[in-house]
Every structure is written in structure tokens, then in C-alpha cells.
Specification:
With 366 residues, the protein is an all-beta fold. The chain is built from no helices and 33 strands. Helices cover 0% and strands 54% of the residues. Strands 1, 14, 15, 16, 17 and 18 form a six-stranded antiparallel beta sheet that branches. A five-stranded antiparallel beta sheet has the order 2-8-9-10-11, with no helix packed on it. Strands 3-4-5-6-7 form a five-stranded antiparallel beta sheet, with no helix packed on it. Strand 24 and strand 25 form a beta hairpin.
Length: 366
């Protein structure tokens, strides 16, 4: 576990706060409503292989009106670097730099964890003087994986395994995340708690943020590394000061796996009704409401490959049944090449280049 100073309680006044020195003003902690993160993303077709950086994107962190003013911010990454822009009666853009002061010019992906606002109000009149955006983001370059904390002034920390950088990340998904006010008094100590899965071509990792530290651990199946992950479907959960309680499905070209975190972390293979591995899956879709956490993990999801579709129920055990129409298998004919390197996932969207080969038709890319 890597310890970081004053986790997410960063220095910096709210944007355009003109009366921060007034002793009668107080900061009220306001969680932002969860939303599907709006983003736009460009990725060069080399899919993360060495070459000229050509990845750019804009991702909303949070936006919320207070009084008559809209407050919020967003993340921008381009070949120039990585930037956070704040709005709230105006706008201000700050470059995100490493602890050594270097720019971060080659971000290949980002995952919005959670967000909240600290609203500065006059308790006597109810007047809103400003708002501070608090947010957490996991982002990666070809060589590093970072945690970005926004709380007045952006700060960045690196996820490592045994002191070694996590490079070559190809995708990931947030399992659960919350920013909580951990100050027992009237002040605000916005603290990030979260769990995120990221994967490279050869390994998968669980990244966590808890209180004053961040950590990373490898996910394994039967003691072996999980290589060739194609995607992660998060099923919901909770992250709080006590534990990460969540579930998710991961899949490769040969297996579908269930990840459960709650007081510990386990990965198990999901088998078809005959007890065999589910190969060539190209997507897993959550069919149940988001798991809220706090009980034994339960969830319902569909898994689809080129020849069949399966319904998977998790609740005290794992049950798999084939989905058929009048006893006939549902056949998609979608095949994802084993050498595919263009994998992109954000906000539950998994986008890949695949081939489509219906009977009697030529092979087509899609």
C-alpha cells in the first residue's frame, strides 16, 4: 500500500471564491449524482504499440448547478499533455504534472471514479460563494498507471506493484467508488474510496484507494496470471472505509471469469451448462440492477460468443443456462482475432475491431 499525504484533501480554493478568508463561511459536502460519464475519445490505430503519440480525449468529471451558477470540471488529454478545466462563473485550465514536474503527454485511457463538491455558503443568508470540485480518475500511458485527484489543485500519484510501474494497460473498469466526507466535525475531508480493474496483454490488476493510501494487486486464476483480457463488465458494489464490496465479469478468448471482492478477492471461471469453458466470448452484458453492496453478491448477466448466448446467475453459487429461441441457439457469427490490440473500454462501453462471417457471405471487419 502506497501512502499519500492528506488524501484528496488538497490545497486550493474554490474557483472564483472571493471571500475565502471570512470566518463565518462554511463548506458543505455535496455528493454529485452518478451519471454515465460523458466523453469523446480518439485512439490511433496502432492500438498502443510503440509509435508517435496520437491519442486525445475529453472526459467530464462532474457538473452541478449551485444557485444560478454551473460548477464542475473536465479532463482533457492530448499529445501536448493532460489538463483539468474548471468552470464556475468562468473557466480555468491547469496542466496535470508528475511529482517530478513532467508533463503527461501520452494518456491512452481514463476511468472516472467518483465526484463530489464542497459548497461554500454563508449560513446566515444561504448565499453560495463558490464550490470546490472533488474527483478521482485512473488514467494510463504506455509506461505508467496513475491516480489523479482533483480537489482545488490536481495531484497525481502512481500505482505500482512492488515498486514497479504498471505499463501497457489496454482497458479497465471501475468496480465501485465513493468520495466520502471523513471529517467528524463541521469541516470537509473529502476522501476517495474505490476499486478498479485494469488489464494488460499478460496480466490483470485490482487498483484500490482507501483513506491515506493507494494499492495494486495482481488478479490471478488458480494461481496463474490472467492474460489476454478482452473486457470487464462491472456489476455494481460499494467502496467505503471498511472494504471494497463488488462483483464483475472478465473474459478472454478462451474463458469467462467472475471476480468477487468483499473482505477478500476471488476469481473463478464461469462454465457452460456442460461444465466446459466458454470460449470466444465477445461481450458480457449486465441484466440485473447494480449490486448495492452490503450482502452476498448477486447478479444476472448474459455472455455471447459466435455460436451461443448464455445467461449467468450468481447468488450463493453460479448457474449457467443457454438462451435459445424455440430450442435453437442464438448465433452471432462474430469472431474477435486473437491478435487484436485495439481494445477500448469506458463507462461500460467495450469497443474492438472484430470480423463478421455469416454463412454464405464474405468475411467483413466491424
Amino acid at each position: 500500500m502506497q501512502r499519500i499525504p492528506s488524501f484528496l484533501r488538497l490545497a486550493g480554493a474554490a474557483l472564483f471564491l472571493t471571500a475565502s478568508a471570512r470566518a463565518d463561511l462554511i463548506e458543505q459536502f455535496t455528493p454529485a449524482p452518478r451519471d454515465c460519464t460523458p466523453c469523446v475519445w480518439f485512439q490511433v490505430l496502432n492500438g498502443g504499440t510503440p509509435g508517435t503519440p496520437g491519442n486525445s480525449g475529453v472526459m467530464n468529471l462532474a457538473t452541478m448547478p449551485f444557485g444560478s451558477t454551473l460548477h464542475g470540471g473536465w479532463l482533457t488529454f492530448t499529445p501536448q499533455g493532460t489538463f483539468v478545466t474548471y468552470i464556475g462563473g468562468g473557466s480555468s485550465t491547469t496542466e496535470v504534472r508528475t511529482s517530478a514536474g513532467a508533463s503527461i503527454p501520452d494518456v491512452r485511457g481514463a476511468i472516472n471514479l467518483s465526484e463530489a463538491f464542497g459548497v461554500i455558503v454563508d449560513p446566515m443568508t444561504g448565499t453560495i460563494w463558490g464550490a470546490t470540485l472533488y474527483a478521482g480518475v485512473v488514467l494510463w500511458t504506455p509506461a505508467h498507471t496513475y491516480l489523479l485527484l482533483v480537489g482545488g489543485t490536481p495531484a497525481i500519484y502512481e500505482f505500482t506493484i512492488g515498486g514497479a510501474a504498471i505499463g501497457g494497460v489496454r482497458g479497465g473498469a471501475r468496480l465501485a467508488a465513493n468520495i466520502l466526507d471523513t471529517d467528524p466535525g463541521i469541516g470537509v475531508a473529502a476522501t476517495q474510496f474505490s476499486g478498479t480493474v485494469v488489464y494488460t496483454s499478460t496480466q490483470a490488476f485490482l487498483l484500490t484507494t482507501f483513506g491515506l493510501g493507494i494499492g495494486a494487486s495482481e488478479l490471478t486464476l488458480g494461481g496463474g496470471s490472467i492474460g489476454g483480457v478482452r473486457g470487464v463488465t462491472a456489476m455494481g458494489g460499494d467502496a467505503n472505509p471498511f472494504l471494497l464490496d463488488a462483483g464483475a465479469f472478465l473474459w478472454t478468448n478462451s474463458k469467462v471469469m467472475l471476480l468477487v471482492a468483499g473482505g477478500g478477492t476471488s476469481v473463478s471461471e464461469v462454465l457452460d451448462p456442460a461444465g466446459a469453458s466458454i470460449a470466444r466470448a465477445w461481450g458480457v452484458t449486465r441484466q440485473s440492477p447494480l449490486y448495492p453492496g452490503g450482502t452476498t453478491f448477486q447478479g444476472l448477466a448474459t455472455v455471447i460468443n459466435d455460436t451461443k448466448e448464455f445467461l449467468v446467475y450468481v447468488g450463493g453459487g453460479v448457474t449457467t443456462a443457454e438462451v435459445t429461441a424455440a430450442g435453437t441457439s442464438l448465433t452471432s457469427n462474430v469472431l474477435t482475432p486473437g491478435s487484436n490490440t485495439l481494445l477500448h473500454q469506458a463507462s461500460g462501453l467495450s469497443e474492438v475491431f472484430s470480423t463478421w462471417s455469416p454463412p454464405g457471405a464474405p468475411l467483413m471487419r466491424g
